[in-house]
Every structure is written in C-alpha cells, then in structure tokens.
Design brief:
7 strands, seven-stranded mixed β-sheet, elongated
C-alpha cells in the first residue's frame, strides 16, 4: 500500500528502496534466526513448505498446504466473508462469531461515496487509498492461499476502521450514530474461539502438573495430532521431544524423510522413553510404535493443565524397546 501511494505521488524511486529495506530488515530481525535454523537443519528456510523449490533431502512427498478452507464455487469466491458470518466453521475448526470482516466487506459498497467525500476534502486522499489498498491486497492474497480465518489477523484489525470510515461518509450526525452503533454491536457480538482461552487464570497463563517419573535424559514422543506442544516448556530442562504422528507426518501421508529423522533420533536415544497423547491409543498408533521397536510398559499417568479446561488430561505412558 505504501509503494502504491509512492507511485501515485511520483516518489517511488526515492521512497521504494527505503520502504522495501525497512520491511525486509524488520522481517529478518523477527524471523531471520528461525529461517537460519531451518536452513541449517533442512536446507529450506520455509520448511516444510516449498520443498521442491529449495530441494535437499527433506522434501515432503505431497502438498502440505491445507486446502480445506478455500472457497468453493463462484458465490464463495465473490462473497466469502458474508457467507462465513453465520457459518464460521467454513473457515475455522472451532466455532466463533466475529462480524468485523463481513461488515467491512459490506461497507465497501459505500466506496464511491467515501471517495467523493475524500476528494472533496483533499485533492489526493492518500490515507484512504493506502488503507483500501492494504485491505484489498491482504484479502486477495489470503483468499486463494489459505481461506483460513486465523491467518486473516491484519485484515481483522483494519476492518473496524473501514466500517467507521464508511459510516462517517454519511451525513455527520447519522454517520456518527451509525459508526458508534456498529462498533458497539461488533464488540457485544464477538465470541472468540477457545484455543486455550479461559475466563480467568492463576498465577501463570499455563499451569502444568507432571507425574512423578524419571525425566533425566528422557525422550518424549508426541503420539497423536492433538496440539500438546504447549506442555513441552514445563518439562524439566534436558527433556527431548519428537513427534511420531501429526499433520506433517504419519498416516495418511506416506513415510518420508521426516519420519526417517524421527526414527533415527529414537534409535540413537539412551534414556527413558515416554509417549504423550490426548486421544485413545488405537491400533494404528500401536503399530507405529512397533515399527520403532517400541511398546507400552505399565500404566499411563495424567498430565494436567489449566488449558485442558473441561477436556480429559493428557497422558504420559512409559515405553520400552
């Protein structure tokens, strides 16, 4: 959006390198260390995506991009925010209610009115143009790439500003009343997905109670696709972790290089071995453990956390070779 504004002002040659350089520097300061780690481990700074582009030994055998959330049919491509307003599971695993993006999308219908008023107040309404460009570019890139609501955070934050500008394009009193009313409605109606969100917290945001077992030099194996990695920092220092089954490896994906790396780490480990799961241990998981020359040993013990709320606790199960 800033570059588009610079082109419009005729200052792109001077402003462009500064804008691009500042954005690149900020990105590298925040994300560069992790990209370097991924490059060292997998020869791919964006691992596991775009494996065929970077090559190397750890390239996924299938497209790992989740396409479940992409629009289907012409109506969804054209009016997706209006369609998910009352069916949020179309763009999310969990139910939520958030009218910010749908209202902003509907508010774009008032764009001609905004523009006439903005041009009447200024010969070059750059602020409005930049905001609309940013909103449109972000949404149009998100739509074919993801279609997944949680990745729409920047657009979600810009949406109330667009709704307010659209309302204020009306005559002063009615526009102000409409803007305030819409923002109040949005605030009262919003219901966030849980994602570990609690009504109240204790001394820590994440409380974890581990069973009393030997953890010195332990290797913990995540055995299902349940999101349990948040427990890892609560384990004693020195505990190692690998994942046997999840959204990047294990059935239904065929075995690939990541499975081989997991197997090598399990085979090279000397110390206690544990399985960490939140779902029932089924025949598929038992078979996967057998392929690693592992089997369950003894009873599973609960791993409790405040973030499980009403869910059953996770379970830590001793393993033996």
């Amino acid at each position: 959006a800033a570059l588009a504004a610079a082109v419009h002002r005729g200052t792109a040659r001077a402003d462009g390198p500064c804008l691009i350089g500042a954005a690149a520097l900020a990105f590298l300061l925040v994300h560069g260390h992790w990209m370097w780690q991924l490059w060292r481990d997998f020869h791919n700074p964006l691992f596991p995506l775009f494996g065929p582009v970077f090559g190397g030994d750890v390239v996924a055998p299938a497209e790992l991009r989740d396409t479940r959330w992409l629009p289907r049919g012409t109506a969804e491509w054209l009016f997706y925010p209006l369609l998910w307003a009352d069916t949020p599971r179309r763009v999310s695993e969990l139910w939520f209610l958030d009218l910010r993006v749908p209202l902003a999308y509907a508010a774009l219908l008032a764009l001609p009115l905004w523009w006439r008023r903005a041009r009447a107040q200024s010969a070059q309404p750059q602020a409005l143009a930049s905001l609309l460009t940013a909103f449109a570019a972000g949404y149009l890139l998100w739509l074919p790439l993801f279609g997944y609501y949680r990745y729409l955070a920047v657009i979600e934050m810009l949406a109330p500003l667009l709704v307010t500008l659209a309302a204020l394009a009306l005559p002063r009193r009615s526009g102000l009343f409409l803007a305030v009313s819409l923002l109040v409605v949005v605030g009262l109606a919003t219901r966030a997905p849980r994602w570990g969100r609690l009504a109240e917290y204790g001394e820590h945001y994440v409380d974890v109670v581990l069973p009393s077992v030997p953890f010195e030099r332990a290797l913990v194996i995540f055995g299902d696709g349940h999101p349990l990695a948040f427990l890892a920092p609560s384990f004693p220092s020195g505990t190692r972790f690998v994942r046997l089954r999840g959204n990047l490896l294990g059935p239904p994906l065929p075995a690939w290089a990541l499975d081989r790396l997991v197997q090598e780490r399990i085979q090279a480990h000397h110390g206690p071995l544990y399985l960490l799961v939140a779902t029932p241990i089924d025949a598929e998981l038992t078979g996967m453990l057998a392929l690693q020359k592992l089997r369950l040993q003894g009873d599973c013990l609960p791993v409790r956390s405040n973030l499980f709320a009403d869910e059953p606790p996770a379970r830590l199960c001793p393993l033996q070779r």
